[in-house]
Amino acid sequence: MEETEKKVENLQEDIKLPDNAYRELNEGEHYKPILLGDKKYPELNAWTIVWGLIMAIIFSAATAYAGLRFGQVFEAAIPISIIAVGASVIAKRKSAISENVLIQSIGASSGVVVAGAIFTLPAIYIIQEKNPGIAINVNFMQIFLASVIGGFLGILFLIPFRKYFVSDMHGKYPFPEATASTEILVSGAKGGNQLKLLLISGLVGGLYDFFMTTFRFWSENISTRMTGWGERLATDHKFVFNMSGTGILLGTGYLIGLKYAAIICAGSFLSWWVIVPLLGPYGVTETGVLMNTLDPQAIFSGYVRMIGIGGIAMAGILGVIKSAGVIKTSLSTIFKSNKNAADTPQQQVLRTQRDISMKIILFGFLGLAIIMAIFFAVGGLHMNFAQVIVGLLIVFIFAFLFTTVAATAIATVGSNPVSGMTMMTLILSSFILAAVGLNGTTGMVTALIVGGIVCSALAMAGGFVTDLKIGYWIGTSPFKQEAFKFVGTLVSALTVGGVILILSKAYGYGYAPGANPDDALVAPQANAMASIVQPLMSGEGTPWILYIVGAVLALILDMIGIPALAFSLGMFIPLALNIPLLAGGAIAWFVSSRSKDEEVNKARKNKGTLLASGLLAGAAIMGVVSAILKFAEVKIAMPESYTNSAFYNILAIVMYVALCAYLILHSLKSEKE
Predict the structure, then answer these.
(1) What is the rounded CA–CA span in Å between residue 656 and residue 208?
(2) Among 315, 317, 232, 238, which residue's Cα sits nearest to residue 271?
(3) Taking the C-alpha atoms of 149, 154, 156 and 161 in order, what is their torsion angle to the nearest 10 degrees?
(4) Rounded CA gap, 661 and 646, in Å?
(5) Residue 244, beta-bridge partner list
(6) Tell me, what's the pLDDT at 4?
(7) Which of 277-286, 432-441, 484-493, 612-621 has the highest average model confidence (pLDDT)?
(8) CA atoms of 149 and 132, how far apart (whole Å)
(9) Maximal C-alpha separation, the chain
(10) pLDDT, average across residues 350-367
(11) How far apart are the C-alpha atoms of 285 and 83, rounded to whole Å?
């Protein structure tokens, strides 16, 4: 018995990726994964299912809060991989690497389902707040069904493309997020210490944000408007420095890295420190009001951010155009694969090459079409037969066309331009639905539900290709990943529906009478969707000139090699939420460049990634707790006399510097791995 255990331990120590894992294969060369295709390994069992679903619930709540409150959705694959490894080491699981891939795959449904839901569906609440006289029905089932249907569609559309992306294009795509997660899973022997570090940093981030946002021990925003001269600068010259002190954004900035954080901030600086100050003395509103009488926030919200919307939409269009060749190549690969599969008995296909059968996929599409038709006809939308058919065609055509765009984006840069593609879907679908008689309030809700389904499908397709690539490198069973991805999606959709409902009622989006804009949910993508749909469906004026300016700017950026989506998002998201990203990115650069030994720099960067993931996850989870307390009308904040004091603002700066110091100093302590 002892001899067998020693063999297993030796096998775990020897686990490593083949030399050709990340490079293109030479002619006649084949990739052989860590887990061989002709052998069986523990994959799906009670351990993997329970842990996977726990991760799906926790990270669905955390990412939904982070996305709605601060406009940043973080990918859950890396922290889930770390937790899975740590838990397996503590529990002394044998050959745990195959189980951990499944835990990661099930749990990672959270991030993609959240992205699909919060980018579009909260726009219904936003329109309702902006127009209190309009009767708009928003309920849990609408959010849940749009999320789960879209998630299932994304899975079904991606499965036929799996072989093309993960096998045929081996080494041609870098798969940055999949690479990071795979490295964590393969380095599983270090999991116990990693889990401990993640829990400690999660506690630090959670308590920091909880004391700040719930108890209000110090200000959540650090701004030049804290001082008299700063207030005069904002009023007279429309210039303001403003940043959020939350740990979520600091951790997110570290994970994004300095390059993309700088590009996002460049867009924000252009909006806030160039265009807003220029419009201040020279701009005039459409009603003839001089903009020098407006607050900088009003100029940004009413005009400048529309340029960002145009840029985001153009970035999505460019993504589709660039991926036209991929769609064609992928389709030809699918037809060839299906022809070969028909000639090969299923039992002769290696475990690592077996997908859910095409017959089941087609039945799945049929089942989803029936559910959608019922949802459109009697689920509160009350569409007639012709409108139901049009709605189904919009969903299936756009989801199919953009699936490969989303997967290619994730495989190439690790970022999915789903918001831009969804905006394009909303604009086109709004025109089409209006043409078949759906306009006004009903048209707005219908367009957003349709857009929500498409958005969820694209987010799922982009996220799921990461899971399948991880499984390909390690050698797990694709058909098991595919089957239980549906379960993770179902649980994530249930969680997200409840969280959106609670957050929307607890905080609102800042448009209701008497609302405090500092407490409002930012929800930048949903705000953009509302800004697009409402004028199109209600016959109001649409700021096409501003959209076109943003589109032209995105086109120029793309021509000179600057990521147009990241820059445009920076123009759209408030300055306060972008500057902390730059702080986090700068810390990532600093800790990974202090030593002359690259191995030391790598170890420090990896430790910082772990700490940042903990700060982010802990703060987001406690943010949901804060929302629940606020929803329950539990008032525990400090008195107004304290929150108006100078000490309240000074302490915010001190605590933020302390949080940055924690991240820097603990990362620098790491030596060679």
Answers:
(1) 9
(2) 238
(3) 170
(4) 23
(5) 221
(6) 41
(7) 484-493
(8) 30
(9) 86
(10) 89
(11) 52
Closest of 501, 617, 574, 586 to residue 74, by C-alpha: 617
First to last CA, the chain: 32
Q: How far apart are CA 609 and CA 58, in angstroms?
A: 19
Return the CA Rg of the chain: 25
Burial 464-485 (b: 16+ CB within 10 A, else e): bbbbbbbbbbbbbbbbbbbebb
Would you give the distance in Å from CA 668 to the centre of its chain?
29
Q: Answer whether 264's CB lies under 8 Å from 578's CB.
A: yes
Element (H, E) at 243: strand 242-244
Q: What is the pLDDT of residues 634-673, one digit of tens each?
A: 777 788 888 888 899 999 999 999 999 999 999 888 765 4
- Cβ distance 185 to 474 under 8 Å? yes
Q: CB–CB of 370/425 below 8 Å?
A: no
Distance between CA atoms of 521 and 354, rounded to whole angstroms? 44
Q: Which amino acid is at 93?
A: R
CB atoms within 10 A of CB 535: 15
Cβ-contact 159, 12 below 8 angstroms? no
CB within 8 Å of 84: residues ≥ 6 apart: 51, 55, 99, 100, 103, 104, 107, 185, 191
- Answer whether 0.85 is exceeded by the pTM: no
Residues in a beta bridge with 222: 243
Please give the structure tokens belonging to residue 23.
Answer: 């490079």
Residue type for position 207: L
Task: Take residue 593 and report the two structure tokens written for it.
Answer: 């460049």
Structure tokens at 426: 């909303």
Q: What tokens were used for 457?
A: 């499908």
